[in-house]
Amino acid sequence: SRFQEYDLLQFLDLERAPSPHRFQPVPPVLRKIFQAREAAAAGGASQDLCYVKELGVRGNLLRLFPDHGFFLNTQEPSRDGPCLQKFLYFNLSAVKEKGKLTMARLTLDLGPRSYYHLRPEVVVSLFVVEERGVWGRPHPKPGRMLALQSVPGPQGPVHFNLQGVLKDWNGSGRKNLGLYLEILAKGDRYSGVNVQVENTCDRLMRSLHASLLVVTLNPEHCHPSSRKRR
Amino acid sequence: AAIPVPKGSCRSLCHRHQLFISFRDLGWHKWVIAPKGFMANYCHGDCPFSMTTYLNSSNYAFMQALMHAVDPNVPKAVCIPTKLSPISMLYQDNDENVVLRHYEDMVVDECGCG
Asked: N or C terminus: fewer CB in 10 A for chain B?
């Protein structure tokens, strides 16, 4: 009965027992990896716990960060301007333990795949925010562009590698002021596709979901890769 | 001469004892998503010389048990884990992040004399 909970938490590399207010839905990517590991352990198969084969990277600690940002263009998307502007913010204060960052993948889920939303093409551009806003709500000022990607149909997940950005934020003292996301729907003015563009913008505003998957490798728990370097 | 097999029941011989730690008992079910707990099995039991030949034992355990039979000052071979497996924990931290963490060599699957 005098269970040394504190010792077990320390042993599990946790400062104290978390007390979340509400449970987040378990991201499919983590659930899939967890279930594969459980099945392997139940089957007695030996496994390299420091290699995440589903992601193709080494690591023994995977964290999925939800986006705490907000939409910037709350008014109707302008006809020829961007369909959607969003400030993305991930609270990375938890990533402080020793360990090598091996993956930082931003996933923008544009919504469920379906046959009805195959068009129009959208252009996704992503910037680092380098200056907070100067008035009222911190309307961020987009700084360096990180990515510009054309997506044939506004649906399904789009991934961006942010490992360099996180290394900047962790290493060179650049503060994590968030990211600036802009999505432009490329309607064709003459084929009356604009109605579709507006529907697309409305749907994206409703269904867009951003998350950041960070994988770290703790050298104390993971011995140098036993794999032969090819 | 063959040393007679001890009369003691098998229960006293080295084997794996199962112990399950339920996260609900610790109140951890409020933040651990999966699994529901983990096996904190342990190894315990006697390693008499006559058993070391097949109690999943190592060669030096056989020699040590033999030496103990000759000179009781030599300690007996001991009951230790011979096969371990990892666990993975899926939990939520205080910043609403979902975390998947792996811990090696957490569960004792098999025991033997070592």
From this structure: N
Of B31, B88, B102, the CB nearest to A17: B31
Strands A100-109 and A209-217: antiparallel
Query: Which tokens belong to A119?
Result: 């068009």
Give yes or no for B19 touching A (CB within 8 A): no
CA-based nearest distance A197→chain B, Å: 34
CB atoms inside a 10 Å sphere around CB A46? 10
DSSP string for residues in A179-197: EEEEEEE---GGGTTHHHH
Of A150, A149, A153, nearest to A117 by C-alpha is A153
Give me the half-sphere count of Cα atoms (radius 13 Å) on the Cβ side of residue A162. Answer: 28
Cβ-based contacts of A26 with chain B (< 8 Å) = 33, 90, 98
Distance from CA of A120 to the nearest CA of B (A): 33
Tell me if B112 sits within 8 A of B65, measured CB to CB.
no
Rounded mean pLDDT, A169-180:
81
Residue A53 identity (one-letter amino acid): K
For B:68-107, CB contacts with A below 8 A are 85-104, 107
- Banded pLDDT at A106 (limits 50, 70, 90): very high
Residue B81 burial (10 A CB sphere; 0-12, 13-18, 19+): middle
Q: Cβ B95–A94 below 8 Å, yes or no? A: yes
Q: What residues pair up with A64 in beta bridges, in sequence order?
A: A213, B98
Amino acid sitting at position A107: T
For the cut 50, the answer to whether the pLDDT of residue B1 exceeds it is: no
Q: Which of B60, B93, B92 is nearest to B76 (CA)?
A: B60
